[in-house]
Amino acid sequence: MLVNHGVPETLMKAVLDDCNEFFNLPMEEKMEFATKDIWKPIRFGTGVDIKVEKFFFWRDFLKVFAHPEFHFLSKPQGFSEIAQEYCKRCHEVSMELLKGISESLGFEESYIEKAMNLKSGFQLFAANLYPPCPQPELAMGIPAHTDHGLLTLLIENGIGGLQIQHNGKWFHVNPLPNSFLVNTADHLEILSNGRYKSIMHRAVVNNQSTRISIAIPNGPSLDTMVSPAPELVDNESRPAAYIPMKYKDYMDLQLDGKPCLERVRLPIA
Ligand SMILES: O=C(O)CCC(=O)C(=O)O
Ligand SMILES: [Fe+2]
């Protein structure tokens, strides 16, 4: 949980309000952006009422590519400007955190920025809507997963629902007002050769209030080949635990819905 991050409270509130307005648009207007193609820069999806195995998935989402090129929608009015400013501030916060993380791994502060080509890093604006669900015990907002990228900055509208897994158990996360929840993600685990772990998380739903969350994953540039940092690999004592893969190709792995990290993790002795 990150506080004192310098991103104005008014901006965080404005971007959540605009997401609420977007989700309140008539379904036909949102369905213009409905696609299963993950490479479309603006993508809307609705999962409410879709049953997968024994659960309903109770979530609508909007995903927009925000960096290196900023795409956005023209509705609701003013959303694009607010979201652009918000994404820029999140990019700055994640760059700062990654400087500290570089140092914690024994590198100079710009190591991750350079190695992952963050000047043209891929950033996504991902808003989630979880309407009240009449039978929350039969539904899941978003199933257990880890995020791609390096760091995800998450905020919500004061209604809880996020859970993270620790030692095989699920824990509710109750963020402080105006804080960011920062999740370490798959490519930080790969780059650090497992020193940082990608956080397994999910979102549950409730039968009272509508929850909105905004996740901003910040990743390498799409054509960066990501592998464990050579300085953190020692063939005798600490062999590379992940196979190298371009970030873009890793994103394509998501298409079949299986956990991607398992596909690049090597069984090490
Ligand atoms: O809504 C949440 O708290 C989690 C959202 C999430 O994990 C995601 O969008 O990747
Ligand atoms: Fe996530």
UniProtKB/TrEMBL annotation:
Stored Pfam families: 2OG-FeII_Oxy, DIOX_N
Residue span(s) of domain Fe2OG dioxygenase: 120-220
GO molecular function list: metal ion binding; oxidoreductase activity, acting on paired donors, with incorporation or reduction of molecular oxygen
InterPro entries reported for this sequence: DIOX_N, IPNS-like_FE2OG_OXY, IPNS-like_sf, Oxoglu/Fe-dep_dioxygenase_dom, Plant_2OG-oxidoreductases
Keywords for this protein: Iron, Metal-binding, Oxidoreductase
Similarity comment: family membership: Belongs to the iron/ascorbate-dependent oxidoreductase family.
Protein name: 2-oxoglutarate (2OG) and Fe(II)-dependent oxygenase superfamily protein
Organism: Actinidia rufa
